[in-house]
Write a structure and sequence with these properties.
Layout: H1 11-42, H2 45-56, H3 58-70, H4 75-98, H5 104-128, H6 138-153, H7 155-166, H8 170-188, H9 206-222, H10 224-253, H11 259-280, H12 290-307, H13 313-341, H14 344-372, H15 378-398, H16 401-408
């Protein structure tokens, strides 16, 4: 008699999904609010850009530094503690703005703090999430996870609309505080067996931290499949960051396009991701074909992203929808496979290293694109970027397919 597959929506999984959704919503509104606050008070695009750089800098070091701790201590407690800290931070900012206080140096410090909190939270969340997925439900669970970002991103235009009507940014920070408070409360109620805590109750010394850090680096170096995946996604994030940096200036500079059409075109990608995630909730990939499916997405999405700016607006919207829809597939395959493959006791160190390397790609891509965009045609730069991405898919991912298939083409 066939045994029924365990249900996905357990109490713990429901609580974490609810908490992370609310937390991501707060993060989306928080990023928008901070940027808008700087622009409102300074009227300077340079100071605004500087805050974005300062916000991203902690994401280079904090993920890899936090990994050893998150492989020793409770990730659940880390999640709700960071949410409560964020709630207090945004509540303080609400009261500051209500009192008419603004100081740019203080805002830079807030950006560093928020960037640090966000990066550690992301590593803790990605490392804790697999523990709450019941056997046989990894693909379904990560299809749910893939829909959280599009849902939260769609709330930013709502926040922008409210700001346009009231011209008061302080309530957005109060909203942020409330969302993080609810997220932390939900995460506190989770009861999970964090097996990586076994044997970790002894005092944690700097020497032990150093040994754990080296063990994590050694593990990643010994796993050729993980190295191939990480190398490819470094190039992929570099390219997407470069293209993303140039898209808004291109739409803004073209007389027949503009910022409003930019939001519509980019919104189609988010809708594609949202619908793609819902479709994949009920779809199971053929185990032995997952690598080939992912490779197909890497190549097709590179062609779409590199070419759609040469087409009419309606075609841009359709292609962005398609790109968002199929990219959910490769995301689901990559993250569910790697999180299942990496041992729980090393998962945070891998996630921290992966996030750090991708953040470096994001920063480098933005800087390169900003420099080249000053004197080269934007569409030509984007074509070259995605040609590089397609080349990386072939030279890195496809060449290393023997090792990557051991990770992607697994039953779980």
């Amino acid at each position: 008699m066939e045994t029924a597959k365990p249900k996905l929506w357990t109490r713990n999984f429901t609580l974490l999904t609810a908490g992370s959704t609310i937390s991501m919503l707060g993060n989306a509104i928080a990023g928008f609010s901070l940027g808008l606050l700087i622009l409102d008070y300074t009227k300077s695009t340079f100071l605004y850009a500087l805050t974005m750089v300062v916000y991203n800098l902690p994401k280079v070091v904090m993920p890899v530094l936090s990994g050893p701790y998150l492989d020793r201590f409770s990730r659940r407690k880390t999640l709700y503690s960071l949410d409560f800290v964020s709630a207090v931070l945004y509540l303080l900012m609400f009261f500051m703005l209500q009192g008419g206080f603004f100081n740019y140096a203080v805002m830079l410090f807030v950006c560093v703090l928020v960037g640090s909190l966000d990066s550690v939270y992301q590593v803790a969340y990605e490392s804790f999430y697999p523990l709450l997925i019941t056997e046989g439900n990894y693909s379904k669970a990560y299809s749910i996870s893939s829909m959280i970002y599009p849902l939260s991103a769609m709330m930013v235009p709502v926040a922008a609309h409210l700001y346009e009507r009231t011209h008061d940014i302080a309530p957005l920070f109060l909203f942020n505080a409330v969302t993080f408070l609810f997220a932390g409360a939900a995460e506190m109620m989770i009861r999970a067996d964090e097996s990586h805590l076994l044997g970790s109750a002894k005092a944690y010394s700097l020497k032990q931290y150093g040994e754990d850090f080296k063990a994590g680096i050694g593990y990643i170096q010994s796993e050729k499949g993980l190295l191939v995946i990480t190398a490819y996604f470094f190039v992929s994030t570099l390219v997407s960051s470069a293209a993303g940096t140039l898209l808004m200036p291109y739409f803004k500079a073209e007389p027949n396009l503009g910022v409003e059409l930019y939001t519509y075109v980019m919104g189609c990608s988010l809708i594609g991701r949202l619908i793609g995630g819902s479709v994949h909730y009920n779809f199971k990939y053929p185990t032995d074909k997952k690598f080939l499916i992912a490779m197909g997405v890497y190549l097709v999405s590179s062609v779409i992203e590199g070419s759609y700016l040469f087409l009419p607006v309606v075609a841009m919207m359709v292609l962005n929808f398609v790109s968002g829809f199929i990219c959910v597939t490769s995301f689901n395959i990559r993250i569910s496979s790697t999180q299942n493959y990496v041992p729980d006791g090393l998962r945070a160190r891998f996630n921290g290293s992966f996030q750090m390397i991708c953040t470096l790609g994001t920063i480098l891509g933005g800087l390169i694109a900003g420099a080249l965009g000053e004197f080269l045609p934007i569409r030509g730069i984007i074509v070259c970027c995605y040609a590089l991405c397609a080349l990386a898919a072939m030279l890195i991912m496809f060449r290393g397919r023997r090792h990557v298939k051991l990770i992607y083409n697994r039953e779980f």
